[in-house]
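Justification of computing resources. Each target in the renewal requires a structure prediction run like the one illustrated here; the chain below, 779 residues long, is used simply to show the kind of job we budget for.
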Amino acid sequence: MDGVAVDLRALQAPDHATRGIGRYTLQLIEGIEARDPSAVRAYVVDPAFPLHREAQRLLQTGKLRRSDSVELTDAPPRVFHTTSPFAEGSSRDAPALPDWATAEVRLIATAYDLIPARFPDVYLRADSDRRWYQHRLALLPLCDRILSISESTSRDLIELAGVPDSRIVTVHGAAGPGFGPGELAADVIRAELTSVDPERVASGFVLVPTGIEWRKNLDRLLQAWSMVDPALRHRTPLVVQCHLAPDARCHLDERIRSLGLRDSVLMTGEVGDAELVALYRSATLVVFPSLYEGLGLPVLEARACGSPVVCSDSSSMAEIVERPEARFDPMDPADIARVVELHLRDPSLRSDLAADPVPERYELDAVCRLVLGVYRDLATGRGRIVASRRPRIAVASPVPPQLSGPSAYMAALLEHLVDLCDVTLLTSVEPAAVVVPAGIRVERITSLPLLELAEGRFDEVVYFIGNSPFHVEELRMLRRRPGCVILHDARLTILHSELAVSHPEEMPGGFGGALHRMYPGRYPGVMGGSGYLPLPEEGLYGVLMVRDVAELATRLFVHSSHAADLVELDCGRRPEVVFPIPSPPVNDADPAPGEQLVASFGFVSPAKRSELVLESMVGLPDVDLALVGDSGEEFLQSLRRRADELDIGDRVHVTGRIDAGAYDAWLARSTVAVQLRMHSNGESSASVAETLAAGVPTVVTDIGTFSEYPDDVVVKVPVDLGPRELAAVLRQLLADSDRREELRNAGRRYAAEHSYRHAAETLVSTLGVVRSGSSVGGW
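Resulting structure tokens:
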């Protein structure tokens, strides 16, 4: 681990590359290369961003590297400088840092401004914008050094981002080497000023280098211009230099007309550097009315060209233009007009203003010296040690209040995992809404890269992944940060179908494209084209879609040998069986007296053979049935109608969604539980674990994971049995109290041996995690 790597996303992002941030970054890099070609080991391009022509200008250094290159992955740099922490690619989901930029890598970030944080009502009105910005803003306090481009930005870093002053280095900025003083002959002016009529500006003009954006304050400047003496406006028209989209141009034209300024305002549109320099050098006065800037590069460029500049008495601009009389209140058009007219009427005042030397701190050599000094300090400094008494594990899973089997599973596992290690739960919901045991830290799953940056890599990141929409964010993060995976299901078709809908950019070609990419030539070409697989088709062809997860997982676990068989046959990798599905605490209470009750627990669906269980009740006239669990209301109603058709409606209870207390009450009342399956996804049944722990004799389908239960623990029935056959099995069991007692005791013993406590201990032992103490940089 050695050397310095510099991020080039400031030169890749289309909204940055040719504007202030891109210009600043390219100039800094070229300055560093000119002064010390050995200072930087690599310039890092992000493959998620376009390779903009501005980034290509650095090809001649021979140091451009992809962020996912083997060179950087195998031997990360000692220092990584992110030149634009807020750069956006085609997707905001692009990670803030490369995967190899772990806590062992010293981190530098350039902070240009915190304008969105300063004006959130303008820039962060949408929740999605605010969340994204706050996520990126959270990176700054984690950096070893922040390179601030002005004292104003440095103050904002302390106030708005919570960055300690000791970690901020104000390096300022400089105009590019092409910006300098010079006399322009009339023919040169005509040649360069292609965007305006040279005859209109022959006697001078007022230049406004700006942009069409609220903060640039152009409308107040136009109001101020309308207050300036008309004779001055006619003699020295206002030249607005900025990029103008057609609709913006129309709006601006209308505003100029409404203010009566059509004869005294010209617009250049976007211009190249040569023409911009010509505009600066030949301008009578340059006005920069911005409300807030990180630096104010146009002010520096104009001053470097020897132009007299008046500007806002705000933020960094007050640092660059030091004469108070050359600054105005940007919120007050009358004050803007006063300062502009004062300088237009007084040539000596303009001459004195133009003659003021630009402070040395704004020279490129001074900026580069400061940056190179930071590089040297961090490249040779020691990292800080973050020690934890116990292993540090991050767990990514659904949790309450999310309603799913894996959610309840995780809540129970965390009760014991917290006793064995330091646990950070990674969730896709608002952390404040999550219900977890005391001692568990809860963070958004998207924060994982920043957490590892701040505290060092976790000893292990464990993703619990199942076949439902609740696991989409786990799959997305697994792609960015591989880790251990525990599969709740061997089949992940629903998960991939949901990912294709919610994040199509991550599944080129959609669901069908992902299916055929994972398994080229295995399935008919039309399969998956509708964006999902119907259950009959899924079962007929045995589609699992587990290959991607299996290939990403650093270690892969399942709860049964059956699931391991399915995964191995699907993709060639055999998972480890970490432990059987855990059981809740054993309930030793005696069965409740009263009428006999057959019950089925968990999600109610055709796949759970709910209709078959209901129809078997016809052969058991003295027995009640409870179907305890949620489903779609339409299916639940169809079951109730079917019970009425069979004239057993008074003995059948279809509960729908109920709370935990009611669920436990049904368990306590049950004489026998029936937990059937039509087919297997390789899943293990939490409902069977619950019935065994509750001491309820349980009938299961002899399929998949159910087949692995010992024969003395459950009663197994064939997949293809009908209602009469099931009724016969239940009749025999209900009549044999001794057999039920044997099953009750065996089930409780099995549940005690496979508790959540045992699962937590087995997991930590199997992972082999040890106490962490990694070097993660110093502050």
